[in-house]
Amino acid sequence: MASRDVAFWKEAINDEMDSILSNNTWILVDLPPGSKPIGCKWVFRRKYNTDGSLQTFKARLVAKGFRQKEGIDYFDTYAPVARIASIRVLLALASIFNLYVHQMDVKTAFLNGDLDEEVYMEQPEGFIMHGHEKKVCKLVKSLYGLKQAPKQWHEKFDSVILSHGFKHNNADKCIYSKFTDCYGVIICLYVDDMLIFGTNMEGISKTKKYLTSRFKMKDLKEVDTILGIKVKKHSGGYALCQSHYVEKILLKFQYLGIKEVTTPYDSTVKLIENSGRAVAQLEYASAIGSLMYAMHGTRPDISFAVCKLSRYTNNPSTEHWKAIGRVLGYLKLTIGLGLYYTNFPLVLEGYTDASWITSASDNKATSGWVFTLGGGAISWASKKQTCISHSTMESEFIALAVVGKEAEWLRNLLLDIKLWPQPIPAISLYCDSESTMSKAHSKVYNGKSRHISLRHEYVRQLIVDRIITIVFVRSSKNLADPFTKGLSRDLVKSTSSGMGLKPFV
Questions:
Q1: Which residue of 34, 56, 316, 478 has the fewest CB atoms within a 10 Å radius of its CB?
Q2: Could you tell me the residue range of the domain that residue 263 belongs to?
Q3: Does the predicted model carry a pTM greater than 0.90?
């Protein structure tokens, strides 16, 4: 290993091996006849803080899971992770109910999973046991790189936390809650990153003590960063920001000559599919991927632009690249915006919209919706509809059916969180189409709308069950408007403010 940081890398390797051996991850055995061991390799990475400073050196022993055979070395591999929307909901609730929010990290999390299958692995380079060179490692616990490692870790954590009195959230299997007469605690798990929400420090301290007794944990105290997103406590609640990530994107694509602009999408430009040779297709896909992470995290204001531009990833043209540059220019101007949640109001509401056919080359409409809680957006999307709608009303109704599903999911999420007042009132969905509202409440079928009967029945049932109620809103006040079309500078500002986007200070 030729590096000026060799001492740090060696320390990282030794720490990893100490964790593996102390966890009894494997036993040395003779390879059974007919069995074939998989290999392993060391993976090294420097981990940085959000301000760019070096945090630590990480070394991982990773099994070559790509050599595993399904049905022999593994069977099921699925493991859930918390939805990013769930994290935002919990931070909004933390703002409203003044909860404490702490963070913990599970060290070498995947080593805790128990293996059900027989898996043999070659001894790791640099740690071949003297006198036992011909032996192989029979894995007893899961190891990074194994196909089933995430599943085994999640099952292990599940059994440990549920045995301590926590209960699953039925809407998100990575959220656990425990409420007693003295305290309430909610845990949100994203692989090995953990947020702990508590009504007081007693509950958080007891939870930390229990987790530390069962796993090797790193206590990160009050939450600072989750999934690369900055989290800051302010006087009225919590705020999220990805300014450091946006800086990286701008630096990565600085060769585009990015100029600041006031809107993410120019509605006067009509983009069409490229019939010629693709222009830097791989770089275009990389740009879309980079923008998507910002969009999904804290920047709902660029959703429509990213959704629209992602449709041309297969064969981008110069015009599509110019549109990418515009999104980057908008981010450059608004790099300091963060998503703010406050302690008021305790109201969950949604906004829905749809744009009908907007180009001769594309006959499918775009659905857009956003939900707000505690003054900030918690869930949003801009998506191309999967079917061709025959009218504006139909495209709006298709969007309404989709947003109804999200409303039902959010309601189910809150049902299992005892902080939320019960029973949960109907969620107000704001829509700017009076014909769609009329259709939603009507039992009449006619020749123009009978083909949408399934969606109609679903939406009507949500209304009858008091899961949603539909309220009219003018287009200029509809927060879902920027998810379906490009807007003017003033409307971009007003809708962004309505979604809780403010300067992160």
A1: 34
A2: 241-333
A3: yes
